[in-house]
């Protein structure tokens, strides 16, 4: 049975989507069968994997619609499978998202048990994959709650800033509440430091605080700032496929290896 991992942080601009896409692609290169789920209405994961959002017939929104219609498990599996798009990257597929997902999030509040909609859908296909990687929106709204209720573990990408520390504390409180109410197995698999610059005093201070409170959660690998890493989404490809010799490509490959040890 495949492991479901959510990349989540309610603070935007922390490298969440970049981390989700590149870690998933690296897992595929390691021989793992990987499905990405774009749960962000902005659809950056979708475009970052070279999938054109215009004219998509099936997306996460339609999967939610299938669950809310009360389909049988076989029909729900058909709906989930028909939404999957095989990318041109090794062992990597995606369930895409478009801006219409923002309306679907609002609709979720109308249904009883809607926090389990994503879980119900992914449970029908998880045996086909080694890892299902969910890219959450930068918020603690209903879509993120659905991801937390469905996943086996969370990766939290964050910058070495004090605002990020404050946001991490809020996120941990939410994780605790979701664990109590919807997913007793929910845990933070790891905290991934992004846009890392070890020469800055602020970075040293933030890392010191993180080690004090979350030492066993920190990934050994940190993600540096890099021009090629920033350019990769504009080419619609993960960094490894743009420049496998770049520092970012090597770092995300190390993150993927460590992730397989953690979960």
What does this structure look like?
With 263 residues, the protein is an alpha/beta fold. It has a single domain, classed as 3-Layer(aba) Sandwich (Rossmann fold), CATH 3.40.50.300. Helix content is 46%, strand content 13%. It has twelve helices and seven strands. It has a seven-stranded mixed sheet, sandwiched between helices. Helix 3 packs antiparallel against helix 4 and helix 3 crosses helix 6. The longest helix has 20 residues. The chain is globular.
Percentage of β-strand residues: 5-15%
Number of strands: 7
CATH class: Alpha Beta
The separation of the N and C termini measures 12 Å
Computed CA radius of gyration, to the nearest angstrom = 17 Å
Provide mean pLDDT, rounded. 92
Question: Largest beta sheet: what is the strand line-up?
Answer: 3-4-2-5-1-6-7
Q: Return the string of H and E elements.
A: EHEHHHEEHHEHEHEHHHH
Blueprint (SSEs and pairs):
Elements lengths: L2 E5 L8 H14 L4 E5 L5 H5 L11 H9 L4 H11 L1 E2 L5 E4 L5 H8 L8 H7 L7 E5 L6 H9 L2 E7 L2 H20 L6 E7 L6 H14 L12 H5 L7 H4 L4 H16 L1
Parallel strand pairs: 1-5, 1-6, 2-4, 2-5, 6-7
Antiparallel strand pairs: 3-4
Helix pairs in contact: 1-12, 3-4, 3-6, 6-7
Labels describing this entry:
263 residues, alpha/beta, 7-stranded mixed beta sheet, 12 helices, 7 strands
Quick structural overview:
The chain is of the alpha/beta class and 263 residues long. The chain has twelve helices and seven strands.
């Amino acid at each position: 049975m495949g492991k479901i991992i959510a990349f989540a942080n309610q603070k935007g601009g922390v490298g969440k989507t970049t981390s989700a896409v590149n870690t998933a692609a690296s897992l595929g290169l390691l021989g793992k069968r990987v499905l990405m789920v774009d749960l962000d209405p902005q659809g950056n994961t979708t475009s970052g994997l070279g999938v054109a959002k215009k004219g998509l017939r099936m997306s996460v929104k339609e999967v939610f619609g299938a669950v809310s219609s009360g389909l049988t498990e076989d029909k729900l599996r058909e709906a989930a499978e028909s939404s999957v798009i095989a990318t041109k990257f090794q062992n990597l597929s995606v369930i895409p998202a478009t801006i219409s997902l923002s309306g679907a999030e609002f609709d979720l509040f109308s249904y009883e048990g809607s926090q389990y909609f994503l879980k119900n859908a992914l449970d029908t296909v998880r045996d086909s994959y080694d890892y299902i990687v969910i890219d959450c929106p930068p918020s603690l709204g209903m879509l993120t709650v659905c991801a937390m209720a469905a996943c086996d573990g969370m990766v939290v990408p964050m910058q070495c800033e004090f605002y990020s520390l404050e946001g991490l504390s809020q996120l941990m409180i939410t994780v605790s509440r979701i664990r109590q109410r919807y997913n007793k197995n929910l845990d933070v698999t790891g905290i991934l430091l992004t846009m890392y610059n070890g020469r800055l005093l602020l970075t040293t201070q933030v890392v010191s605080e993180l080690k004090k409170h979350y030492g066993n959660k920190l990934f050994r690998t940190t993600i540096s700032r890099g021009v090629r890493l920033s350019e990769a989404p504009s080419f619609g490809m993960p960094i490894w496929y743009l420049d496998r010799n770049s520092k970012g490509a090597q770092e995300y490959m190390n993150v993927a290896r460590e992730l397989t040890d953690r979960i």
